[in-house]
């Protein structure tokens, strides 16, 4: 199973939209993924160690460097399928490269 | 005509009489089916709103049941009149979505958006349907004072138009702050950015009088890392609970209880908050499908919720630093009756500070400190309305004493709440004096906004020049 972390401002609205969309679309594409949500402020270096992929809305700046693949998931929030597809394609590519 | 009204009453009255949670369950499920959402999904969404309303009520009961007596003792032992419980934004959003009027205000905002897009008065298509609650709550405040739907609609429409203009004018700043290419359509119509004009007044003072202060800006990401878990929801709940317990001279046992109740309720508000996001989801998708189909060929930016800005560490550093400052201000500012708890991380304020100052952290903190009293006084002013509305949608425990009130200490749009109260009072008591005061306030608000637009145009022109240079 691929573990993904989505993050937004309160861990309630945007990150849950991203979670639902990714879980639905990746299931369709035949991947077993689990997406957790978090307030971006609460992410530490340790938090990210528990995940394979990080999907924030836009790339954040931390005091540490991010060691796992980062995919900007903002376009999912536009709710227009054609605009979200590149995000899913990139995600699929990264998942394939993980070879899990 | 009489027959139609009679028929409508016959159909709708029993549904309305069921109470808010059952009614919104039925309304949202039906609306979702109208949007061609599969029946199962539609019912799932409707149920989630109903259980979210009910769940918020349960958590508010736990929180006020434990905190209200301690807050009364707090007033007695300190002499500081802070008796309103701050539940943060999630319960207020749920309560607002528990009112059928929110769907009406949503319709108004969608119509405004379509008209403005067609007339080329905005370039923003708003798909952030959920956040219409911020305008809806303003409309509900007007109705709370006056029962005047026309005045409520006019104020919501007025603010709605300005929000779209604001979304357009901020776009180049978003590109700058997040290194987004011009092709990226992300923008936001969020109400919190309607505080930009006032923040900009103070930012200009810094430009003219204290520009040297920017030299002392520190690295926000490092500060955030140092604060670590101390800034997380449960930790805040724990030490604010303890703070209340100690100052109200409770027993050691009660102090611990208050601390852990504070922690658990703040966590639970978020959990329940996620439920009703799912309830609004089919509606959001349906409206977006409808609008984007009809706007084919038109290029536009897309308005989403503000947290794409959450990538910038400055807004969190400012929120972390402002939290203890807010507690202090709450204790000393005359007129405030809120003890900060659920809203103490001021995400209703720091995104606007980020946009206006473009991440100058010291300016954000200092101007933020100046803004906090506005939020506290606004939150105090709307507490009777929030409490009453929570009761009417069944999200407030019935057994609690009638003087117990809830509110949100850092609710977006503090100035707009005062405007809503003025407009509401005008509707309730239409006389020359109220009319003059309200019109004057609205004129001042609009004048400040127009001045701000001018400043932002200058800023955007500079961005253009930098690009071509």
Keywords:
heterodimer, A: about 100 residues, alpha/beta, Rossmann fold, three-stranded parallel β-sheet, 3 helices, 3 strands, B: about 475 residues, mainly alpha, about 70% helix, about 5% strand
Estimated radius of gyration of chain B: 22 Å
**Which word captures the global form of chain B?**
globular
Instruction: State the separation between the terminal residues of chain A, measured CA to CA.
Output: 7 Å
> In angstroms, what separates the terminal alpha carbons of chain B?
67 Å
The H/E string of chain A reads EHEHEH
User: What is the radius of gyration of chain A?
Assistant: 12 Å
- Oligomer designation: heterodimer
- Helix proportion of residues of chain B, in percent? over 70%
Number of helices of chain B: 16
Strand content of chain A: 15-25%
Mean pLDDT of chain B: 92
Count of all domains of chain A: 1
Annotated CATH homologous superfamily of chain A: Response regulator
Q: Write out the strand line-up for the largest beta sheet of chain A, numbering strands in chain order.
A: 2-1-3
Structural class by secondary-structure content of chain B:
mainly alpha
Main interface by residue count: A-B, 33 and 47 residues
Organism (chain A): Thermoactinomyces mirandus
Protein name (chain A): PTS fructose transporter subunit IIB
GO molecular function (chain A): protein-N(PI)-phosphohistidine-sugar phosphotransferase activity
InterPro entries (chain A): PTS_EIIB-like_sf (IPR036095), PTS_EIIB_2/3 (IPR003501)
């Amino acid at each position: 199973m691929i573990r993904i972390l989505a993050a937004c401002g309160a861990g309630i609205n945007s990150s849950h939209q991203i979670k639902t969309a990714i879980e639905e679309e990746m299931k369709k594409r035949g991947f077993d993924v689990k997406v957790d949500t978090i307030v971006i402020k609460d992410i530490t270096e340790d938090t990210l160690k528990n995940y394979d992929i990080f999907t924030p809305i836009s790339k954040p700046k931390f005091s540490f460097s991010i060691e796992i693949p980062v995919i900007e998931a903002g376009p999912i929030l536009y709710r227009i399928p054609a605009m979200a597809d590149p995000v899913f394609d990139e995600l699929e590519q990264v998942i394939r490269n993980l070879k899990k | 005509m009489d027959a139609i009204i009679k028929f409508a009453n016959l159909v709708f009255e029993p549904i309305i009489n069921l109470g808010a949670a059952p009614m919104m369950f039925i309304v949202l499920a039906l609306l979702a089916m109208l949007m061609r959402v599969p029946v199962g999904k539609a019912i799932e969404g409707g149920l989630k709103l109903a259980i979210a309303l009910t769940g918020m009520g349960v958590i508010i009961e736990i929180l006020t049941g434990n905190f209200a007596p301690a807050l009364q003792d707090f007033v007695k032992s300190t002499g500081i009149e802070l008796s309103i419980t701050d539940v943060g934004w999630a319960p207020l959003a749920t309560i607002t979505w528990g009112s059928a009027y929110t769907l009406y205000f949503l319709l108004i905002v969608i119509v405004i958006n379509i008209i403005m897009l067609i007339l080329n008065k905005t370039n923003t298509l708003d798909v952030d349907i959920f956040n219409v609650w911020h305008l809806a709550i303003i409309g509900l405040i007007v109705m709370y004072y006056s029962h005047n739907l026309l005045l409520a609609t006019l104020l919501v429409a007025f603010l709605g138009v300005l929000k779209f203009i604001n979304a357009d004018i901020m776009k180049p700043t978003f590109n700058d702050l997040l290194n987004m290419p011009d092709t990226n359509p992300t923008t936001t119509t969020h109400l919190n950015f309607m505080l930009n004009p006032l923040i900009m007044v103070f930012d200009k003072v810094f430009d003219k009088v204290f520009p040297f202060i920017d030299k002392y800006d520190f690295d926000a990401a490092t500060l955030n890392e140092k604060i670590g878990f101390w800034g997380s929801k449960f930790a805040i709940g724990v030490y604010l609970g303890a703070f209340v317990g100690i100052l109200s001279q409770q027993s050691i046992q009660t102090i611990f209880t208050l601390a852990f109740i504070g922690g658990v309720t703040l966590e639970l508000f978020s959990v329940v908050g996620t439920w009703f996001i799912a309830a609004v989801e089919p509606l959001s998708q349906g409206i977006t499908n409808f609008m984007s189909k009809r706007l084919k060929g038109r290029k536009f930016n897309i308005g989403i919720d503000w947290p794409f800005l959450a990538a910038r560490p400055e807004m969190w550093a400012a929120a972390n630093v402002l939290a203890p400052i807010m507690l202090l201000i709450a204790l000393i500012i005359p007129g405030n009756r809120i003890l900060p708890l659920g809203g103490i991380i001021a995400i209703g304020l720091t995104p606007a500070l980020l946009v206006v100052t473009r991440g100058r952290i010291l300016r954000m903190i200092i101007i933020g400190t100046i803004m906090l009293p506005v939020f506290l006084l606004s939150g105090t002013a709307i507490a009777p309305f929030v409490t009453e509305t929570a009761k009417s949608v069944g999200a407030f425990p019935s057994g609690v004493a009638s003087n117990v009130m809830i509110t949100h200490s850092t609710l977006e749009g503090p100035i707009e709440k005062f405007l809503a109260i003025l407009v509401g009072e005008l509707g309730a008591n239409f006389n020359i004096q109220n009319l003059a005061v309200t019109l004057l306030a609205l004129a001042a608000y609009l004048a400040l906004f127009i001045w701000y637009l001018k400043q932002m145009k200058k800023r955007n022109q500079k961005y253009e020049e930098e690009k071509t240079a």
